[in-house]
UniProtKB/TrEMBL annotation:
<protein>
    <recommendedName>
        <fullName>Glycosyltransferase RgtA/B/C/D-like domain-containing protein</fullName>
    </recommendedName>
</protein>
<feature type="transmembrane region" description="Helical">
    <location>
        <begin position="231"/>
        <end position="249"/>
    </location>
</feature>
<keyword id="KW-0472">Membrane</keyword>
<feature type="transmembrane region" description="Helical">
    <location>
        <begin position="12"/>
        <end position="29"/>
    </location>
</feature>
<feature type="transmembrane region" description="Helical">
    <location>
        <begin position="185"/>
        <end position="202"/>
    </location>
</feature>
<feature type="transmembrane region" description="Helical">
    <location>
        <begin position="150"/>
        <end position="173"/>
    </location>
</feature>
<feature type="transmembrane region" description="Helical">
    <location>
        <begin position="255"/>
        <end position="271"/>
    </location>
</feature>
<feature type="transmembrane region" description="Helical">
    <location>
        <begin position="462"/>
        <end position="478"/>
    </location>
</feature>
<feature type="transmembrane region" description="Helical">
    <location>
        <begin position="208"/>
        <end position="224"/>
    </location>
</feature>
<feature type="transmembrane region" description="Helical">
    <location>
        <begin position="77"/>
        <end position="99"/>
    </location>
</feature>
<feature type="transmembrane region" description="Helical">
    <location>
        <begin position="436"/>
        <end position="455"/>
    </location>
</feature>
<keyword id="KW-0812">Transmembrane</keyword>
<feature type="transmembrane region" description="Helical">
    <location>
        <begin position="41"/>
        <end position="61"/>
    </location>
</feature>
<feature type="transmembrane region" description="Helical">
    <location>
        <begin position="484"/>
        <end position="503"/>
    </location>
</feature>
<feature type="transmembrane region" description="Helical">
    <location>
        <begin position="278"/>
        <end position="299"/>
    </location>
</feature>
<keyword id="KW-1133">Transmembrane helix</keyword>
Length: 508
């Protein structure tokens, strides 16, 4: 049984690897251009050079023996200090090109400025109740800024900087614990290039906050798995479940992580099958889910209370239903290049203010129409196009929401003239920057994919791999775009580092 389940674990890892390797190759050779176009040759060269550098490092780098406690402490100080410095740099750069967003983030901004939101704002939160906790967070951020006479944009920028610090620190520690100090530093650098220098650092919304909470949860789970003292293991696991529950308050996507962990628990139980082990494993997992659910309910209620909308009539508006997001995920979006299953304005207008039954009826009709038009092969082709389109954007939909790409810079610092050319979508170097980060992102996916094809079975590797494929499947089923990948970028970077480390050990 142990050999069979180990083969099952390796098979699952290899299947995930095949999907991501094929995706990376398709993005480089036959891309479905995202909202931010880029020079294809530059992205291809960047990806190939980065992948070649990784391959050379695997063959040349010499393995180190176990580090002494003093060396481990120094490495921790170096890694976390680098994360702090990188976060400060990211905040300074983002602060030099701030602008006012035009989409949901703008609604949150306006609603947080008043205790009595206008009727159209109440209608918005009735239609999208998932953003009520976001409003609660935004009110707290605004209030904290007012205490020190700092505006909303700057306050959220500091908040995002703290979240980036948590993210980079968690990336470093996760990769270091699973592979080593050098892998941790490289993973930190890659995460900084993809996330710390991203225009998303400017935006006061859910993406950066959820990313930090999710990455911290994964880091704590890895720490719990390593802990040799039971009390420490339990405390770390509880903290991980609380952080995971908090991430679910702001976005539903992190739900794939407990599902991935549950699958790994089943594989591990099958490898060491005794009634006692099965019982302990299942009870432990159930307890973790309970803590996660309690965190989600408790923190969500606190955030909704902080939003201050209970006295208003937001609950009289019929919200969008899950089925409407499935229907939207099957439609082409307008424009050139087209979008695949992204936000669809005409569908939103069709279901606006409709009762739940009517919304679901319209959604089912859309789903049936698309199936009859495409058939099985056409639907599979559309979903593959959507996969390549979603994962083929190293900017993760930067400036793609609303009318953000046309918004002027409101910050005017000494760095603005130097940062604006490559960090603004109208900048003279934006296309090149987009090509470089997309090439780097494709290299991460390619290394991850090829590495998983040959990696030995490891429960932590499998959990990370299933989390990555989980978000990919969720985006395929629902309405989505590359922004929805942003939250999982740190996990994917860590996973790429893990399989590189595994390759390095196998090559000795």
């Amino acid at each position: 049984m142990s050999t069979l389940t180990t083969l099952l674990g390796r098979g699952l890892q290899a299947a995930v690897g095949a999907v991501f390797a094929a995706t990376a190759i398709a993005v480089l050779l036959t891309p479905r251009m995202p909202v931010n176009g880029y020079p294809r040759a530059l992205a291809l060269v960047t990806a190939l050079m980065t992948t070649a550098l990784v391959a050379i490092t695997v063959w040349v780098a010499r393995p180190h023996g176990p580090a002494s406690p003093a060396l481990r402490r120094r490495q921790t100080i170096i890694g976390l200090s680098t994360a702090l410095l990188a976060s400060i740099v990211a905040v300074i750069i983002a602060g030099s090109v701030t602008y006012r967003p035009t989409w949901d983030a703008s609604v949150i901004r306006r609603a947080s400025s008043t205790a009595h939101p206008a009727p159209y704002l109440q209608h918005y939160f009735g239609l999208y109740p998932n953003n009520i906790p976001v409003l609660g967070m935004a009110r707290r951020v605004r209030a904290a800024g007012e205490l020190v006479h700092v505006g909303y944009t700057s306050s959220f920028l500091v908040m995002n900087g703290l979240c980036l610090l948590v993210t980079l620190g968690s990336v470093y520690l996760s990769a270091r614990w699973l592979v080593g100090h050098r892998a941790g530093m490289v993973a930190l650098l890659v995460a900084f290039l993809l996330l710390g220098l991203s225009p998303w650092m400017i935006i006061g919304y859910t993406d950066i906050v959820t990313m930090a909470l999710l990455t911290l949860a994964v880091c704590l789970l890895i720490a719990a798995d390593r802990a040799s003292i039971r009390a420490r293991r339990v405390a770390l696991a509880l903290a991980a479940c609380i952080s995971l529950g908090a991430s679910l308050v702001f976005k539903p996507m992190p739900i794939v992580v407990p599902i991935a962990v549950g699958i790994v628990v089943l594989v591990e139980v099958a490898r060491r099958a005794t009634f006692r082990r099965i019982g302990v494993a299942l009870l432990t997992f159930a307890a973790g889910l309970g803590v996660c659910a309690a965190s989600y309910v408790g923190l969500g209620a606190a955030a909704r209370t902080a939003a201050g909308l209970d006295a208003h009539q937001v609950h009289q508006v019929t919200p969008a239903t899950p089925l409407s997001f499935v229907a939207g995920g099957l439609l082409y979006g307008p424009g050139h290049p087209p979008s695949y299953g992204g936000y669809n304005g005409p569908l939103v207008e069709r279901i606006r203010n409709k009762p739940v039954d009517e919304t679901n009826r319209i959604s089912w009709q859309v789903i049936e129409d698309q199936w009859h038009q495409r058939g099985l092969s056409g639907t599979a082709r559309f979903e593959w196009d959507k996969q390549v389109w979603t994962w083929g954007d190293g900017t993760f939909w930067a400036y793609g929401e609303g009318e953000d790409r046309w918004q002027p810079v409101i910050a005017h610092t000494v760095l603005t003239p130097m940062v604006e050319p490559w960090d603004r979508v109208q900048g003279s170097l934006w296309d090149e920057r987009s090509g470089l980060v997309t090439g780097l992102w494709c290299a991460v996916l390619l290394v991850l994919g090829v590495g998983l094809l040959f990696a030995r079975y490891d429960r932590r590797t499998l959990a990370l791999a299933l989390s990555a494929i989980g978000i990919a499947l969720l985006i395929l089923v629902l309405q989505g775009r590359s922004r929805y990948v942003l939250t999982f970028v740190p996990i994917i970077v860590v996973l790429a580092g893990v399989v590189v480390g595994d390759f390095s050990r196998l090559s000795r």
